[in-house]
Amino acid sequence: MSVFDHLSDLPDLPARFTGDYPIMVEGLTNRFGDQVVHENLSLKVRRGEVLGVVGGSGSGKSVLMRSIIGLQRPAEGRVEVLGRDITAADLDQNIGVRRRWGVLFQGGALFSTLTVGENVEVPLRQYYPEIVDDLRHEIARYKVRLSGLPDAATSKYPSELSGGMKKRAGVARALALDPELLFLDEPTAGLDPIGAAAFDRLTRDLAETLGLTVFLITHDLDTLHEICDRVAVLADKRVIAVGTIPELLASDHPWIQEYFNGPRGRAAMESKERAVHKAKAAMDKDAPRGDTG
Amino acid sequence: MRDWAEYSIAQADGGGACLAFSGRLVVSTVGPIDHELRDLETPLASVDLANVTEMDTVGAWVAWRIARDHGAQITGASETAARLIDAVKSSASDAEIVPPRRPLAERVPLAVGEMVYAWGGGIVNLLGFLGAILVAMGQTIRHPSRFRLRSLVHQLELVGVNSLGIIGLMSFLIGIVIAQQGAVQLRQFGAEIYTINLTGRLTLRELGVLMTAIMVAGRSGSAFAAQIGTMKLTEEVDAMRTIGVSPVEALVLPRVMAAVLMMPLLGFFSAVVGIIGGAFLADLALDIPFFTFLRRIQEVVPLHDVWVGLVKAPVFGLIVGLAGCYQGMQVKSNAEEVGRRTTMAVVHAIFMVIVLDAFFAIFFTEIGWD
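^ Those are the sequences you sent over. The predicted structure of the assembly is below.
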């Protein structure tokens, strides 16, 4: 491996994180001037779960995500990602951690002068110069397909894509380095219900296949019901509750009650129940046929 | 120290070799072995993953691709590995990363053709735009209540008042340069006193207005294009249309009018400051007293020089305003285009101003205003 010897002093990527909590936020406080966004906020995300983060507009969901991925320096508190303290170390020293997460921003945030395929290649070029062009192209191609885009989208520019396709392309780029953590900022906002449902399925499938831990900010009640293992509720400048939806329903916090028991919350819950019934009925019907066949 | 993934090839009995990967087969370790395995000539019968400690989709892809290329069996895959291989297998694709480029022999004529076509279209569109402005002007004359006085005043401030400082400074320096360089040349004929004629006539007739037009194109023409272009991107212009507000009336007319109205004032201001700059230098370096210089200006500069400047100025203002607003309204798809259109607005405006200035120079000489 003589040709690649000069790359050997790059820090090696540590083995997959095996602790219980890949994201740990403790006593986080964020301020913009006099305005306090978070005060003494704590949150733990379990390995392998899809955590939904909900909260009213302006409750600081995006700021929380930015604090976790190191784009926003908190005023106080400690943020540990994959066992490393993000707040203490310099951003440049966190490259090792940065290679292990992928982020989907709200609008996709694709580089507009590059094609979708080239967008996926950017992180690969940045971190792994030893990967030859052929392999890099192959990786870009299958990542685009893995994100549920058609072949033809690989060579398209972002301006030629619809909103839903841009989000999928954003996911392809977020997955470029096979991260362990995936951050999604309102992935289904602005998508039609069919597109949103398809995106939910994609998230679920990817999380299961690739063993991802997903931090998902959303307003979409259907997404919460369909794919989230647990839901964290942001209100009063902190996380007021974390748990499965039935657990949250048991809480008597007025905001949570209004959120899940409002007209939209009920509709989403009922559709979920209907889906479960249907699936059960289908299973009952299939069972005898399976025996005879 | 990086821990690259490793492999070994063992010759099996039944013909064909067995490729066995070992260690971590992930994106950060797979680069070099992928490079080597691409040139592998030994035909493989199986790819063994039993000694792989960790795998991600990139590792799965490399293993699967080699197996596919050699028609080999994958053995010893763990449950995770098998799942990842399934995922990449069903996502395999040979799509182009970059849209295919045409051969050079086609590309060049194509680009030239498109450019010519765009020029033609641009001229037609620009005429149409000018027409739309005239129509909007007619509308506001018929319905004066619809005229946006506040907007106009705001633009007058941005285009005119706010640029007094920079235009004044520029003109003052240019006046100094003309007087100094003129004096150096004229001294050879003992005609130093003509420095006054040179400075006065040149600034009033040509340079004051021309330099001002260039400055306004760079300062305000670009701002027009960027503002309107951004408003197009954020669909503000479309929103206006649906409410029934004409964007030409609301956005373009005040800006173009501001440029047309302010250019004569700024051009004259520039000429005056240029003369003051010349007088300042003459006082310091040529022993011509400051006020003598100014008094001589009155005597040696014919009044029609002032008119030449004042006639040209609104035309230049129209060109600058028109180019800025037109390019702004042409923005369609993305942020990159705002930048491109802004550049085009400035370049086109300056180019057109200089071309027209040449025509004006000949025209005014022909009618005897020399």
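The radius of gyration of chain A is 21 Å. Chain A touches chain B through 49 residues (CB under 8 Å).

Shout if you want it in another format.
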